[in-house]
């Protein structure tokens, strides 16, 4: 047991789990699925707690899990045990606004109440800080009512309506002592009848008299069954509060619980609780960065993002749209405003200047903004000691920042517009005086200064800032500067600058993922261009944006206009640039003759002019024509073409070249080549500072991981690509990520979810090439629903194909089901003509399936080949086919092959195939092994739901136990069924019982 006065360790695991029982002083022990997939004999004990408002004791009727505070709760349980044994304690919970002090204290009192303690609560308020004893009166009023007949007479000084009056001694100090002793006697008497737990929340706002009496009470309860819980903000605690706590610490009556923000795991757990689902990493990363782990900020930012539509569902997953970082919840602004309003006017002015100046908040700039504030350096030191400002050393100079990102934004939001503009203008002047002006930073302040800066000067600065931002590919920043500059150019009649500013706006909007704004700006710039070359260039860029956005018809028309604008002109470089976009456009539209024509023209240009870019693009086109449909691209040739394009500064197109090789490597089942290309593509995207270029390679890698049998990794990569795609506005990447998710989901039996993904993918972006892939996966969905006709309609009998082996494999499977042996033969011949092992193995499988019992040898050969290629699901499916083919002729071999296939299917969560294998084994007279589920597949919350349902509780009862809604429990249960391959509550109960029995027997054996 911890000794007096020692503080517990306060770390942060992901959350406290479990269910509280109804009876006092007891708790529900909930076994969770362990990392090895077994039900542990020693249960993990935890508790779900009532959700309390972040800065107050339970109110509002909200519920939710207490997250990231396990060690604090464990420490408090120890304190409770001490108090119950007659040793009084003071627990001081310290933390800054929003960190969860009041919620944790409310949980402490709830636990004490369950152990039979009497619960008393009082709260100090900022607007009642002049009311003597207010929180003490609030907390003790229930005890005074009970003691009205025989309580200490001196209580009449505080409480009205008592049947006696307090005697007067004429000595104010003595009367104060008697009052304090009366309060201590009241609490001690109550503790003799029943242990007492008393909370005073927000002690930093308490009046001096309340602080004094609480100090007296804290010393007086040392030998009683009384617990005093105090919460306070260290940065706002006055001298009286600090002195009282220091005095109690000297007497070793205090247990300090400093409460710090949540770590990344805690933020992830809290977001999952708020959203009812585990969010992808980009969502968690943004929230962790913006909130710095403060629970209130996490909750309010999630609400704000959802309310604004910037956090939304895509394919059943939470994703962030563009501009999500701009959200500042009004509730957070209000909370932080209270803290700022408590500062004196000079300190507040300096803090506001820090919020205005942002990345240029050096001492000299702040002094320039706060010209009317004396001793700015001293004010900064004071703010730093108060925990409101931090110092950072950046590039050899000291910068000042708000201690929390949202604090800076809250301070900024409370400034009146006129004051805000004046301070930005002062910041701009201070930046200029420093010399070595950063164009983007200066433009930021000039843009925010509005009318406070002379318009002609502002236009010049904003134009330079937009140019600088575009060069750095800082999309959002460039859009802001370009918009402001365009507005000023219009006001000042500077039409000569508008085309250039429109170009900067279009480029920045493209980097920011704002395709609509980019397209509009390119078109406007093109219509204003007098020079045909400029017009052609802008139409070309418009076509590029439209191609990326999936508006391929419009892109083709604008490319034609770009070519027409150059008629009769010598513009080799620009014609090559047009050919680059045309190649991508034609391949996505499956217009291979047009690709061949472009390649021939590029080869002529290269031969005539020696243009290296034309030569590299021609090589790319030849590789595309060779690889599309056959997958025989030479890796070294791709590397040479990429090197040639990259040498000309074409980072974006170099990534596109990597994608070509990615597609062909996928078609060949060569995962090592896929991994290499993904790494190179991502490296190029990052080197060019173009995160949107990471989306497609990441989605391709998800497809490769599906083929390689790493299905959980495939889903994680698809989620990442989906999140990045929405964040940066990459519709084709979004659709490919959705297709990758659908591939996994349909094979896991989540057919409805897979179909939802495909529907969203088609609506989001669908060119002919990607459309063929979507259609093949849709055919697999139809097959899962036993809709043979629907599946057949989705799979054309002629190429070109997106992934030829996948396409031909599904086409051949349909032919086998239709018993069309001629079609099976044609498909197998097409596969063999591709000329690589993956295709040959799939051809052998189809021929073996069509041959029935006579195809055992072909199926065995195909399974071995697929296994060697690292395609575990395909190999297992082939083994199951082989088992079915030999079920009557060689049942022993059939059992062996079926069991081996079943192990793979269970490992992958391929529920339909697992069920098929189990049916075959039962037909062969063999009892299938129970599913040996791998570790961590159920979330902790799903494990709790599974356990409680297995104990016979209804969904409504489970919801009450876990403080969830019945609908949420139903959703969890549906996911559990899918993930475990079960169909009913009875099967789930049997599964849980079998796992518990298996674990016990293994433990007994050891």
From TrEMBL:
GO cellular component: cytoplasm
A Pfam family hit: AAA_16
Organism superkingdom: Bacteria
Keywords: ATP-binding, Nucleotide-binding
Record has Nucleotide-binding as a keyword: yes
UniProt domain HTH luxR-type: residue ranges: 931-996
Segments forming a coiled coil: none
One biological process term in Gene Ontology: regulation of DNA-templated transcription
One annotated GO molecular function: ATP binding
InterPro entries per record: AAA_16, P-loop_NTPase, Sig_transdc_resp-reg_C-effctor, TPR-like_helical_dom_sf, Tscrpt_reg_LuxR_C, WH-like_DNA-bd_sf
Keyword field contains Cytoplasm: no
Classification via PANTHER family: TESTICULAR SOLUBLE ADENYLYL CYCLASE (PTHR16305), TRANSCRIPTIONAL ACTIVATOR DOMAIN (PTHR16305:SF35)
Protein name per Swiss-Prot or TrEMBL: LuxR family transcriptional regulator
Species of provenance: Saccharothrix syringae (Nocardiopsis syringae)
């Amino acid at each position: 047991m911890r000794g007096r006065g020692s503080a517990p360790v306060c770390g942060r695991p992901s959350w406290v789990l479990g269910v509280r029982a109804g009876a006092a002083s007891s708790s529900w022990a909930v076994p969770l699925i362990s990392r090895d997939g077994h039900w542990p004999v020693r249960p993990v004990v935890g508790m779900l707690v009532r959700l309390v408002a972040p800065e107050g004791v339970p109110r509002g009727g909200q519920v939710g899990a207490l997250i990231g505070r396990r060690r604090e709760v464990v420490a408090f349980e120890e304190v409770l045990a001490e108090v119950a044994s007659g040793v009084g304690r003071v627990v001081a919970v310290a933390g800054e606004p929003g960190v969860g002090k009041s919620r944790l204290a409310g949980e402490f009192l709830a636990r004490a109440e369950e152990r039979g303690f009497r619960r008393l609560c009082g709260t100090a308020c900022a607007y009642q800080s002049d009311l003597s004893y207010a929180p003490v009166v609030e907390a003790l009023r229930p005890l005074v009512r009970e003691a009205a007949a025989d309580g200490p007479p001196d209580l009449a000084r505080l409480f009205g309506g008592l049947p006696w009056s307090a005697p007067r001694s004429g000595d104010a100090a003595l009367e104060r002592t008697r009052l304090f002793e009366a309060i201590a006697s009241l609490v001690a008497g109550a503790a003799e009848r029943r242990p007492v737990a008393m909370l005073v929340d927000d002690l930093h706002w308490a009046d001096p008299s309340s602080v004094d009496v609480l100090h007296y009470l804290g010393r007086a309860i040392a030998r009683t069954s009384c617990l005093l819980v105090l919460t306070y903000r260290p940065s706002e605690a006055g001298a009286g509060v600090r002195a009282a706590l220091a005095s109690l610490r000297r007497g070793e009556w205090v247990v300090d619980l400093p409460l710090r923000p949540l770590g990344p795991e805690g933020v992830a757990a809290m977001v999952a609780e708020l959203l009812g689902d585990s969010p992808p990493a980009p969502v968690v990363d943004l929230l962790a960065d913006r909130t710095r782990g403060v629970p209130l900020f996490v909750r309010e930012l999630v609400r704000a993002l959802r309310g604004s539509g910037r956090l939304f569902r895509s394919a059943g997953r939470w994703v962030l749209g563009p501009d999500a970082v701009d959200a500042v919840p009004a509730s957070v602004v209000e909370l932080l405003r209270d803290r700022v309003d408590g500062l004196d006017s000079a300190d507040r002015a300096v803090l506001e200047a820090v919020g205005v100046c942002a990345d240029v908040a050096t001492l000299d700039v702040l002094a320039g903004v706060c010209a009317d504030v004396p001793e700015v350096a001293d004010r900064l030191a004071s703010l730093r000691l108060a925990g409101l400002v931090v110092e950072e050393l950046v590039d050899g100079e000291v910068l000042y920042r708000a201690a929390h990102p949202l604090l800076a934004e809250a301070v900024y939001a409370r400034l009146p517009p006129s004051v805000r503009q004046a301070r930005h203008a002062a910041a701009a002047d201070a930046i200029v005086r420093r010399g070595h002006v950063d164009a983007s930073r200066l433009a930021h302040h000039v843009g925010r200064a509005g009318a406070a800066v002379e318009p002609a000067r502002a236009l010049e600065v904003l134009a330079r800032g937009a140019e600088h931002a575009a060069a750095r590919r800082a999309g959002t920043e460039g859009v802001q500067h370009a918009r402001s500059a365009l507005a000023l150019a219009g006001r000042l009649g500077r039409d000569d600058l508008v085309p250039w500013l429109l170009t900067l706006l279009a480029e920045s909007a493209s980097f920011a993922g704002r395709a609509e704004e980019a397209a509009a700006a390119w078109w406007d710039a093109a219509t204003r261009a007098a020079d045909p070359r400029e017009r052609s260039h802008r139409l070309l860029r418009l076509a590029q944006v439209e191609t990326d956005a999936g508006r391929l018809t419009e892109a083709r028309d604008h490319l034609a206009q770009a070519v027409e604008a150059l008629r009769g002109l010598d513009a080799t470089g620009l014609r090559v640039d047009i050919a680059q976009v045309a190649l991508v456009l034609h391949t996505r539209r499956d217009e291979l003759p047009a690709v061949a024509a472009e390649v021939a023209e590029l080869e002529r240009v290269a031969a005539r002019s020696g243009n290296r870019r034309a030569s590299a693009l021609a090589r790319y086109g030849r590789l595309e024509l060779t690889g599309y449909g056959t997958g025989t691209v030479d890796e070294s040739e791709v590397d040479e073409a990429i090197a040639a394009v990259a040498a000309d500064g074409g980072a974006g197109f170099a990534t596109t070249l990597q994608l070509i090789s990615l597609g062909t490597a996928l078609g060949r089942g060569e995962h090592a080549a896929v991994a290499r290309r993904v790494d190179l593509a991502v490296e190029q995207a990052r080197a060019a500072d173009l995160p949107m270029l990471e989306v497609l390679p990441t989605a391709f890698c998800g497809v490769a991981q599906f083929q390689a049998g790493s299905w959980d990794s495939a889903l994680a990569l698809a989620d990442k690509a989906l999140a990045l795609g929405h964040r940066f506005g990459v519709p084709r990447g979004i659709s490919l990520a959705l297709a990758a998710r659908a591939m996994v989901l349909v094979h896991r039996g989540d057919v409805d979810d897979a179909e939802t993904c495909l529907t969203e993918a088609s609506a989001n972006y669908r060119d002919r090439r990607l459309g063929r892939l979507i259609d093949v996966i849709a055919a697999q969905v139809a097959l899962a629903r036993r809709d043979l006709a629907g599946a057949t309609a989705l799979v054309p009998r002629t190429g070109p194909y997106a992934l030829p082996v996948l396409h031909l494999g599904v086409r051949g499977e349909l032919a086998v089901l239709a018993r069309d042996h001629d079609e099976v033969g044609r498909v197998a011949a097409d596969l063999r003509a591709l000329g690589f092992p993956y295709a040959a193995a799939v051809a052998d499988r189809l021929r073996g399936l069509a041959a029935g019992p006579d195809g055992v040898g072909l199926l065995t050969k195909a399974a071995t080949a697929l296994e060697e290629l690292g395609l575990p699901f395909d190999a297992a499916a082939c083994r199951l086919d082989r088992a079915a083919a030999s079920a009557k002729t060689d049942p022993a071999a059939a059992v062996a092959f079926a069991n081996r296939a079943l192990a793979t299917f269970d490992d992958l969560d391929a529920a339909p195939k697992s069920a098929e294998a189990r049916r075959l084994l039962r037909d062969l007279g063999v009892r299938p092994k129970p599913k040996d589920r791998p570790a961590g597949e159920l979330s902790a919350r799903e494990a709790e739901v599974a356990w409680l349902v297995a104990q016979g509780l209804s969904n409504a009862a489970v919801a009450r136990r876990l403080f969830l809604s019945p609908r949420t429990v139903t959703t969890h249960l549906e996911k559990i069924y899918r993930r475990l391959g079960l169909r009913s509550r009875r099967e789930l109960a049997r599964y849980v019982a079998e796992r518990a029995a298996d674990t016990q027997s293994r433990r007994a054996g050891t």
